[in-house]
């Protein structure tokens, strides 16, 4: 009895089950006919292709719930290499799509290789109709559950990202005599970098930047704790005292093995002076109008480790044309294909070349230079604040 006849005799007990859309790939017409009769008689909708290129095109342009595919498309090729290569290409298109492979020349080694390349299940020709239908239904149910879980996870991440974005300043204040630009770029959907810029009086503007050890959701949660502790203290205390207070609070909240680097500064526009405190963060850099540069050296311990650490503060005078760069290590540790970091030298060099640009244009130039260096594949969250003293300072 041929497979077509077997397919027609199969009872329709699966027809009541929620079936899906199946893409069938085989180069033998009688196999395609038999499979279509079997699946359509049991509630599935089907589409057939006879060549690997058409299979890939169908997956790139349409939606399917399951792929049922042969491993051999070249007559005389009994090793299934063409089909095995195809599995990797399909997985690059959709990592969750169920793939059930079929071959008339099956072996244990081929089945293992197919599963290693991304097959979800394996069935041998000639097939048992009941077994094939069971495998299809099992893979369909499993995939739907995974996609539902993935969708819920993405929705939760989007909510977390929205909350994190709400903690960052929606717009930067306009400060007479200065231009300020800032950005943060999380490596993952959410990140552990934080910055804020806030005008706290007619003459004082506060800005800070922070980097939580680690990446992703756990770092974002710790960052939100920092923001909550910082907000009621902003502009109320001198930098060294604020850092000491924050550190004591965060030592009680920070998990073992985690810490936060932090830089906090108060800009006094009446004196064109910046007072600052650095808690284990990358030293910011001042690029002077004449192209010379200097790091802000004042430093203390990171937050979350030493509750009694005594912080100190420093100050720097800003003159017309001077630019202050405050950044996280994700920017300078952007690595190229040979493992070379973008580094502070490139950061300063780019700032020197663009020192006549506005703060916003300079920020874009610095970010683009780092992105070009690493092929736009950053290895960590990256944030940057640019503070530029303009010629209008009096």
Could you please describe the fold and organization of this structure?
Helices cover 38% and strands 22% of the residues. It has 394 residues and is of the alpha/beta class. It folds into two domains: 3-155, 3-Layer(aba) Sandwich (Rossmann fold); 168-389, PPM-type phosphatase domain (Phosphatase 2c, domain 1), CATH 3.60.40.
In brief:
The chain is α/β, with parallel strands linked by helices and 394 residues long.
Feature tags:
single chain; 394 residues; alpha/beta; Rossmann fold; Phosphatase 2c, domain 1; 2 domains; 5-stranded parallel sheet; 5-stranded antiparallel sheet; 11 helices; 38% helix; elongated; disordered N terminus
Tell me the span between the first and last alpha carbons. 97 Å
**CATH fold group of the largest domain:** Phosphatase 2c, domain 1
Helical proportion?
Answer: 25-40%
* Count of discrete alpha- or pi-helical segments spanning 4 or more residues: 11
What is the number of beta strands? 15
Briefly note the structural class of the backbone. Answer: alpha/beta
> What coarse outline follows from CA principal-axis ratios?
elongated
- Uncertain segments of ≥5 residues (pLDDT<50)? 1-17
Overall pLDDT confidence = 87
Q: What's the gyration radius in Å?
A: 30 Å
Q: Name the helix and strand elements from N-terminus to C-terminus, one letter apiece.
A: HEHEHEHEHEHEEEHHEEEEEEHHHE
| Biggest beta sheet attributes | 5 strands, parallel
- Strand arrangement in the largest pleated sheet: 2-1-3-4-5
What number of domains?
Answer: 2
The CATH superfamily of the largest domain turns out to be PPM-type phosphatase domain
Tell me the β content: 15-25%
Q: For the record, what CATH class of the largest domain applies?
A: Alpha Beta
Instruction: Please give the CATH architecture of the largest domain.
Output: 4-Layer Sandwich
């Amino acid at each position: 009895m041929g497979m077509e006849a077997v397919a027609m005799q199969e009872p329709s007990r699966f027809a009541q089950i929620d079936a899906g859309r199946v893409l069938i790939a085989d180069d033998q017409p009688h196999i395609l006919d038999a499979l279509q009769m079997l699946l359509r008689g049991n509630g599935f909708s089907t589409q057939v292709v006879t060549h690997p290129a058409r299979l890939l095109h169908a997956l790139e342009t349409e939606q399917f719930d399951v792929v049922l595919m042969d491993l051999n498309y070249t007559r005389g090729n009994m090793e299934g290499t063409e089909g095995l290569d195809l599995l990797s290409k399909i997985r690059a298109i959709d990592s969750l799509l169920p793939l059930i492979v079929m071959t008339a020349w099956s072996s244990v080694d081929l089945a293992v290789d197919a599963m290693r390349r991304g097959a979800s299940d394996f069935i041998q020709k000639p097939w048992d109709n009941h077994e094939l239908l069971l495998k299809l239904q099992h893979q369909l149910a499993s995939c739907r559950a995974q996609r539902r879980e993935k969708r819920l996870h993405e929705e939760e991440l989007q909510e977390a990202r929205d909350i994190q974005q709400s903690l960052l300043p929606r717009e930067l204040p306009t400060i007479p005599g200065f231009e300020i630009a800032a950005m943060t770029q999380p490596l993952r959907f959410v990140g552990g970098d934080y910055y804020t810029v806030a005008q706290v009086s007619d003459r004082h503007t506060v800005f800070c930047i922070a980097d939580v050890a680690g990446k992703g959701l756990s770092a974002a949660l710790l960052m939100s704790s920092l923001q909550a502790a910082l907000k009621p203290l902003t502009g109320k205390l001198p930098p060294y005292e604020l850092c000491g207070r924050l550190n004591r609070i965060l030592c009680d909240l920070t998990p073992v093995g985690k810490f936060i680097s932090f830089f906090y500064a108060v800009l006094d526009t009446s004196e064109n002076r910046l007072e600052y405190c650095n808690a284990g963060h990358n030293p910011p850099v001042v690029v002077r109008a004449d192209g010379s540069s200097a790091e802000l050296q004042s430093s203390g311990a990171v937050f979350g480790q030493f509750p009694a650490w005594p912080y100190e503060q420093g100050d720097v005078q800003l003159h017309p044309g001077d630019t202050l760069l405050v950044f996280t290590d994700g920017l300078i540790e952007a690595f190229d294909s040979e493992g070379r970091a973008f580094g502070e030298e490139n950061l300063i060099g780019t700032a020197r070349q663009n020192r006549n640009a506005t703060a916003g244009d300079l920020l874009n130039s610095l970010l683009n230079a780092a992105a070009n260096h690493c092929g736009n594949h950053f290895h960590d969250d990256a944030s940057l604040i640019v503070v530029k003293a303009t010629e209008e300072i009096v």
